[in-house]
What does this fold into?
Amino acid sequence: MGYKNVIFEKNSTFLVTGGAGFIGSNLCEAILAKGHKVTCLDNLSTGKKENVNLFIDNPLYTFINGDIRDLDTCIAACNGIDYILHQAAWGSVPRSIEMPLLYEEINIKGTLNMLEAAKINNVKKFVYASSSSVYGDEPALPKKEGIEGNLLSPYALTKSVNEKYAALYTKIYGLETYGLRYFNVFGKRQDPEGVYAAVIPKFIKLLLENKAPTINGDGNQSRDFTYIENVIEANLKACIAPSSAAGEAYNIAYGEREYLIDIYNGLCKALGKNITPNFGNDRKGDIKHSNADITKARIFLNYDPEWNFEKGIQYAINWYQKNL
Ligand code: NAD
It folds into this structure.
């Protein structure tokens, strides 16, 4: 269970793209804790300098302020790297509906650049962030790899194209790629600010400020909220997965689902608040329910998540209480 027992060779080197962001900075931290070298490539567009400053004095950590849209930058960053954990992308379904061209450039072209750079540098493994949004309007629950519906947003399209390119790079060039379809990740350092912020940090921040959050829709939508530690486990285990498991995408979640209204009420209780939320319209591109079948990752990546929602949310609340 977990990733404590995941061991890499002594001088292993990692590149985390998007390492100044929420998931990427947590990955950098976990790799450094294992005593390995990590390079972070990030253009600080949605990521934060403070997530770089956390590690900058560690001699095992290198920061490259660069953009994955530039192939030469990607090639240089991959030099001497064993494992790539490619997280850099622009997230948010609604933002992608507003600016599809930018998503094409960053998420599709940027990922293709990274695949090409990984191939040129002969890296051992290319592990990358995909998303549960690739399931589109498929109503069947739980979501199972191979049963995808019609895509609902430019963001989902970019992730779906990433998976197809990655599979091709495995098939044609032998680059070992592993796609991780994250389901609503939460935990420390997730940005609570702005209109595109994820729901858990946003609700916690507003409640701590005694303000009423707005719930899109009636609150009866459900998601497989996944604690960050499970995502770290998936990334590290994909790095040691067998070659036969390459060229595929895997659901990464806990495998249960929570209703938004219950989360809201639970947060109010935990924070000692009695605030009535506002209810807004349903969001375009959203689906009502989502949860993952994680059997494929269990079998092929040996993924065995140890953090359920209750345990994760307690840690997240404590972190935000201390750090906001
Ligand atoms: P984040 O915004 O916190 O991190 C993304 C990082 O990528 C940021 O630091 C940003 O500055 C960097 N970046 C963006 N464009 C870049 C570019 N052109 N060049 C270099 N760096 C660039 O987001 P996150 O939540 O940590 O997401 C990480 C990955 O996981 C993304 O690929 C996202 O699509 C995927 N994902 C996240 C979730 C979630 O719930 N957080 C769910 C599914 C998939």
Summary: Residues 13-185+226-256+290-306 form a domain with the Rossmann fold fold (CATH 3.40.50.720). DSSP finds eleven helices and 13 strands in the chain. The longest helix spans residues 100-120. The chain has a mean pLDDT of 97.
